[in-house]
């Protein structure tokens, strides 16, 4: 099961900012609530007191001739009562309760049954004028202020989150460009030139580390190229010498010895193919040599191979798109395996539009469990479990082409599909 | 053909020398660039050059010959198989490039092809009047009848055919046929030429008095 992708820096930062925006909005709202509570109470208490004083002064100035107006708005939030010294309600506004807010007249502020009440003496006979306001109105005022603050803070936070997301994406673009340049970098090209100058201060150590890595890689590559060149020379020249000597010896030897020398020469030719394939794979693996893909006719490929004690039946006219040398080496090893496993006839065909070389033999085959284990080992490139060079080399050749070696179930004998990948 | 084989590996050098000699060629084998100094001015039909030699680069040696106007066909025999190296070898003046390991049969075939191309034709068959030669199969016919030639006779005829139309001095022909180290009786070449005329017709090989021999272009 593939590992989940790592989290995105931009997404993580955006989530963090959103969290902070929510917390900030709540904190601001709470602070505003507390501040507004005190200020609103103070402001409205002042208004109550002023109203009471105004109405008291008005009543005193006009004595009893002035009738205080009786409120007519049923939903008003302010109310008043004029209460006698014995507690009877002499007059009241529409919203005010019929009973006095205080059984015994008293002055000053008090909270009574959902009202904020301010009492003021209204003359020398002990009458008291109460001016009151509903507490719900106060709470509503507090809530509106706090809600406004919260909404404002959240709006700022959300806008900040969107801005930061875009900004982070913009700031991460140099990193994205660095990744693209790194992906396009081809050894042994200098990394400094390929990566360009660092676009952000934070990327300077990344560039330095990559350039250092590239320098070490270039050194390693040069060493491996030198090794492969020396190995190629050390292996190819003696092989050519062996073949030339065997050719001369077979030509001049008596018939019984000549036949033996021809067989030895055939084995030497197989060795040459294997060595050539290994050298080719080594170079394609280190990126110093590209595959030389091209159309390869199956029947011509078979003709190139050294003689086998096998009947090879190649589909006439079938063509593959492959590196001919590597393909010959892979096929040679598969045929060698077939011969060693008792095959007498090998059928070769091309499938999947020239992409797959299909090999079927009439040998002893292998047990289904063993076939499955081999197929699994090849799929996972565990070549220690593939039992020899043949399958490993064929798989490496297939993988060098972008495909892989598969071992399909067949009714009899042994089957191998050399998938050479997309063209 | 007279061949200069420049190869330092004793196993390969000896094998190629013996194979090519058995094919009817005359092979002078040098194991180093220093040994080629003794061959300066010698005529060869083809050069077989290894790139990496103990005392220098065979490729540079070939470049030097080319810069001096030498157009002798040359094959690079080398373990260097990279595309860039093949291109470098061919650009340096090699007419063909053979990557080791190779079968001596393939080398012989490429040698014939290179020699034919340098002679102006890619066809291994050569016709002149009633005489027909197959340079690849090393066979000769006169009026359709097969004519048996000895290895020396074939070597003389091939050397002249590859230079058809021009006069080949006797001394050059002796070297081409017998090689640098071989000794030849003073009239041995005339004996082979005479045998060829007897077998293939007197008009085939023209003697240019005081200069050498010539066969006409087909």
Protein topology:
The complex is a heterodimer of chains A (423) and B (218).
Chain A: H1 9-61, E1 78-83, E2 89-92, E3 108-112, E4 115-121, E5 128-134, H2 135-184, H3 191-195, H4 204-252, H5 255-285, E6 293-297, H6 298-304, E7 311-314, E8 319-323, H7 324-340, E9 345-351, E10 356-361, H8 368-379, H9 389-400, E11 404-406, E12 414-419
Parallel strand pairs in A: 7-9
Antiparallel strand pairs in A: 1-2, 1-5, 3-4, 4-5, 6-8, 9-10, 10-12, 11-12
Helix pairs in contact in A: 1-2, 4-5, 5-7, 5-9, 7-9
Chain B: E1 2-6, H1 10-22, E2 26-30, H2 33-36, E3 46-50, E4 52-53, E5 56-57, H3 58-67, E6 74-78, H4 83-91, E7 96-99, H5 104-118, E8 125-128, E9 131-134, E10 139-142, E11 145-147, H6 151-161, E12 168-169, H7 170-178, H8 188-200, E13 206-208, E14 212-214
Parallel strand pairs in B: 1-2, 1-3, 3-6, 6-7
Antiparallel strand pairs in B: 4-5, 8-9, 9-10, 10-11, 12-14, 13-14
- Please bin the fraction of helical residues of chain A: 55-70%
User: What percent of the residues of chain B sit in helical stretches (DSSP H or I)?
Assistant: 25-40%
Specify Rg of chain B, calculated over alpha carbons.
17 Å
Low-confidence stretches of chain A: none
Order of helices and strands of chain B: EHEHEEEHEHEHEEEEHEHHEE
Q: Specify the overall morphology of chain A.
A: rod-shaped
What is the percentage of strand-forming residues of chain A? 15-25%
Q: For the largest interface in this structure, which chains are involved and how many residues does each contribute?
A: A-B, 27 and 25 residues
Q: What's the N-to-C terminus distance of chain A?
A: 29 Å
Number of helices of chain A: 9
Trace the largest sheet of chain A across and list its strands: 2-1-5-4-3
Number of helices of chain B: 8
Compute the number of strand runs of chain A: 12
Sketch the major β-sheet of chain A.
Answer: 5 strands, antiparallel
Biggest β-sheet: strands ordered side by side in the sheet of chain B = 2-1-3-6-7
Beta-strand content of chain B: 15-25%
**Through-space gap between termini of chain B:** 19 Å
- Judged by helices, strands and strand pairing, the structural class of chain A is alpha+beta
Largest sheet of chain B: 5 strands, parallel
Order of helices and strands of chain A: HEEEEEHHHHEHEEHEEHHEE
């Amino acid at each position: 099961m593939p590992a989940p992708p790592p989290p995105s820096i931009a997404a993580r930062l955006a989530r963090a900012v959103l969290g902070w925006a929510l917390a900030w909005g709540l904190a601001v709202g709470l602070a505003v609530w507390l501040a507004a509570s005190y200020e609103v109470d103070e402001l409205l208490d002042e208004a109550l007191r002023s109203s009471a004083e105004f109405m008291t002064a008005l009543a005193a100035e006009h004595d009893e001739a002035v009738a205080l107006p009786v409120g007519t708005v049923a939903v008003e939030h302010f109310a008043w009562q004029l209460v006698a010294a014995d507690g009877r309600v002499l007059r009241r506004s529409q919203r005010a309760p019929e009973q006095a807010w205080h059984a015994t007249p008293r002055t000053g502020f008090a909270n009574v049954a959902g009202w904020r009440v301010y009492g003021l003496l209204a003359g020398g006979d002990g009458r008291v004028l109460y001016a009151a306001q509903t507490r719900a109105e106060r709470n509503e005022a507090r809530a509106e202020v706090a809600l406004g603050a919260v909404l404002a803070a959240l709006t700022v936070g959300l806008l900040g989150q969107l801005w930061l997301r875009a900004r982070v994406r913009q700031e991460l673009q140099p990193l994205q460009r660095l990744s693209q340049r790194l992906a396009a970098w081809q050894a042994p090209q200098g990394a400094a030139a390929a990566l360009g100058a660092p676009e952000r201060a934070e990327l300077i150590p990344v560039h330095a580390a990559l350039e250092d890595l590239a320098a070490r890689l270039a050194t390693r590559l040069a060493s491996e190229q030198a090794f492969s060149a020396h190995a190629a020379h050390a292996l190819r020249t003696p092989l050519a010498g062996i073949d030339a000597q065997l050719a001369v010896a077979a030509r001049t030897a008596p018939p019984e010895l000549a036949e033996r020398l021809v067989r030895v020469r055939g084995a030497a030719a197989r060795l040459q193919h294997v060595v050539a394939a290994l050298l080719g794979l080594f170079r394609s693996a280190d990126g110093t040599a590209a595959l030389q893909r091209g159309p390869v006719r199956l029947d011509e490929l078979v003709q190139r191979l050294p003689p086998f004690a096998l009947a090879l039946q190649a589909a006439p006219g079938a063509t593959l798109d492959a590196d001919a040398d590597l393909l010959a080496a892979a096929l040679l090893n598969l045929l060698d395996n077939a011969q060693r496993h008792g095959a007498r006839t090998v059928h070769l065909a091309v499938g999947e539009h020239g992409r797959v070389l299909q090999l079927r033999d009439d040998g002893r085959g292998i047990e289904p469990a063993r076939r499955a284990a081999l197929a699994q080992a090849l799929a996972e490139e565990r070549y220690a479990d593939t039992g020899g060079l043949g399958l490993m080399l064929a798989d490496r050749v297939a993988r060098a082409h972008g495909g892989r070696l598969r071992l399909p179930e067949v009714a009899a004998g042994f089957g191998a599909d050399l998938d050479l990948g997309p063209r | 053909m007279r061949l200069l084989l420049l190869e330092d590996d004793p196993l390969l050098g000896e094998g190629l020398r013996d194979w090519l000699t058995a094919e009817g060629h005359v092979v002078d084998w040098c194991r180093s660039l220093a040994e080629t100094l003794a061959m300066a001015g010698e005529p060869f039909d083809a050069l077989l050059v290894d790139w990496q030699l103990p005392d220098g680069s065979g490729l540079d040696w070939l470049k030097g010959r080319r810069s001096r106007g030498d157009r002798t066909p040359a094959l690079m025999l080398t373990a260097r198989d990279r595309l860039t190296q093949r291109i470098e070898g061919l650009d340096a003046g090699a007419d063909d490039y053979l990557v080791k390991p190779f079968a001596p049969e393939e080398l012989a075939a490429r040698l014939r092809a290179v020699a034919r191309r340098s002679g102006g034709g890619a066809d291994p068959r050569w016709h002149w009047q009633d005489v027909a030669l197959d340079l690849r199969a090393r066979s000769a016919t006169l009026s359709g009848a097969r004519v048996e030639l000895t290895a020396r006779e074939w070597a003389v005829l091939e050397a002249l055919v590859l230079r058809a139309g021009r006069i080949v001095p006797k001394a050059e022909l002796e070297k081409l046929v017998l090689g640098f180290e071989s000794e030849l009786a003073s009239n041995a070449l005339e004996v082979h030429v005479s045998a060829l005329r007897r077998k293939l017709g007197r008009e085939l090989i023209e003697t240019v008095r005081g200069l050498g021999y010539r066969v006409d272009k087909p």
